[in-house]
Automatic annotation (TrEMBL):
Biased composition (Basic and acidic residues): 398-413
UniProt biased composition (Polar residues): 319-336
PANTHER family: ANKYRIN REPEAT DOMAIN-CONTAINING PROTEIN 60
Record keywords, A-Z: ANK repeat
Species of provenance: Candidula unifasciata
Keyword Transcription regulation among UniProt keywords: no
Residue windows of the ANK repeats: 149-181, 182-214
Protein name: Ubiquitin-like domain-containing protein
Region (Disordered): 319-342, 381-413
Origin superkingdom: Eukaryota
Length: 484
């Protein structure tokens, strides 16, 4: 008696708990008496209570815990608040599962997948099925009783994978989201056996994928517990699809600091000279480093640098270059020693404003443009002088050549004139030869070409062709006169 009292106080309540891994686990065999079906329970331990064992049997057989009657070694029903060690369970033992007498025929009809038989056993609200106990029920209790029978049939059909029966029960009013005594829905039973086809059917008919049982298990966690990867993937994808449908874009989201001055916004167009605004994400005076390196006391380094800058301004470039190696310069923290600060105080200069900087940039641009223009003029002048010098050299050299070409041309012209006169005297009165050495457009063009790659002048080639044509013409006329 004291031993059982210690067990009750140790367990506390009879609520089933989900156990993913138990120490000293062993297996048990379960036989469903109405149908003589056999099932295997693998993750069983002596510390489990009968209530927890019934929850595992519920997943393994598809029989809701509310109509289970477990017996072991004898016909006596096991008590929910006792553990397996107290009931002398041994590994590979056999547990007999019976159902309440009023549900026995319904279980047989569902497991045999006989749809007509199932619908004759009171699974719809319009059914006239009755039992001796149901004759004394009120309309409200009878409605709840028929709904419970429809739920038991739907859970068992989903567990066995009878798709046609599942669809028929849902179409005739069975609630797909109704829960058993432990909070399980038909989707939990289909996920426990990894039947993806039944899972899809239940989801298409409005099954709640996020429904939890009394232990906090969803259909996805049940599928993962029993190692059904395909079913788990199906549930996971459907769950994300449902979340995506329920998401709506947020409106009036407050912008961050760097988003207020984004280049896509018209803010950058404002201000003098269309200057681009730059904003800091950190607030003024906020430390920019980590919390480990943050100063515990004293003035913030950024404020110290700012005060020093406002007091002493900045060093001019010329003064910085004059500083000797022994003299100190501004450090990374922006601090100067007092001696160096007094020494170079006369060389300090106020920083330029934006307008002053802009004027300085414009002046530099003008100077660069003038310098470029001056260089261009000098380059053009130099090129013209070189061209004049080369033209003079070519003119001196060309005068000598011109005299030689003139003498040679006169000689050739006199010889060709003599030949032409001889030919003209031998011709009849109404015949004429081609003009030789007449300055026409073709001759001027050939003269401009000079000589070919072989060294022959194009004009000389034309002269030879004219002389050849004249000779052929003379020969032809002589033959005509001889025949006459």
């Amino acid at each position: 008696m004291s031993r059982s009292r210690n067990i009750l106080t140790k367990k506390g309540n009879n609520k089933p708990k989900s156990c993913k891994s138990r120490g000293n686990a062993f297996s048990l065999h379960v036989i469903l008496k109405p149908t003589e079906e056999k099932f295997m329970l693998k993750d069983v331990s002596y510390s489990m209570t009968v209530a927890q064992l019934k929850e595992d049997v519920e997943f393994a057989t598809g029989i809701p815990i509310s109509i289970q009657r477990l017996s072991y070694l004898d016909e006596g029903e096991l008590q929910d608040n006792t553990d397996l060690k107290t009931n002398d369970f041994v590994p590979e033992g056999t547990v007999r599962l019976k159902v309440w007498h009023m549900y026995q025929e319904l279980v047989e009809a569902v497991t045999s997948n006989d749809i007509d038989w199932v619908f004759r056993l009171g699974v719809t609200s319009s059914s006239d099925y009755h039992t001796p106990a149901s004759d004394y029920m009120s309309k409200k209790l009878r409605k709840e009783w028929l709904e419970d029978r429809a739920l038991i049939a739907l859970c068992l059909a989903a567990h066995r994978g009878h798709e046609d029966l599942v669809v028929s029960l849902i179409e005739y009013g069975a609630d797909v989201n109704k829960q058993t005594a432990t909070g399980k829905t038909p989707l939990h039973f289909a996920s426990a056996v990894g039947n993806s086809k039944i899972v899809n059917t239940l989801l298409q008919h409005g099954a709640d994928i996020n429904a939890e049982d009394h232990s906090g298990n969803t259909a996805l966690s049940v599928s993962e517990r029993f190692g059904h990867q395909i079913c788990s993937r199906t549930l996971f994808q459907f769950q994300w699809q449902q979340r995506a449908k329920n998401l709506k874009p947020s409106k009036n989201i407050p912008l961050l600091a760097h988003q207020y001055f984004d280049s896509n916004l018209p803010v950058w167009k404002r201000g003098t000279s269309a200057q681009i605004y730059v904003s800091k994400i950190l607030k003024p005076g906020e430390f920019e480093g980590t919390s480990l390196s943050a100063p515990r006391s004293g003035k913030h380094p950024s404020l110290a640098r700012r005060e020093l800058r406002d007091a002493t301004f900045f060093l001019d470039n010329s003064s910085v270059s004059d500083v000797t190696p022994g003299q100190s310069s501004p450090t990374d923290s922006g601090l100067l020693s007092s001696a160096d600060g007094k020494k170079h105080l006369t060389n300090l200069k106020k920083p330029l404003t934006y307008q002053e900087w802009l004027e300085k940039q414009n002046e530099m641009a003008k100077q660069m443009a003038l310098e470029k223009k001056r260089q261009t003029i000098e380059h053009i002048k130099q090129n013209s002088e070189e061209a004049d010098v080369s033209q003079e050299e070519n003119g001196e050299f060309g005068s000598e050549k011109w005299l030689e070409n003139t003498d040679q041309g006169e000689t050739e012209k006199s010889a060709q004139d003599m030949l032409l006169s001889a030919h003209q005297s031998a011709l009849p009165g109404d015949c004429s030869l081609l003009p030789v050495h007449q300055d026409g457009a073709l001759r001027m063009y050939l003269r401009s070409l000079g000589k070919s790659s072989s060294g022959v002048s194009y004009e000389e080639w034309l002269n030879e062709k004219e002389m050849e044509i004249n000779r052929l013409f003379l020969q032809k006329n002589s033959n005509i006169s001889g025949s006459v």
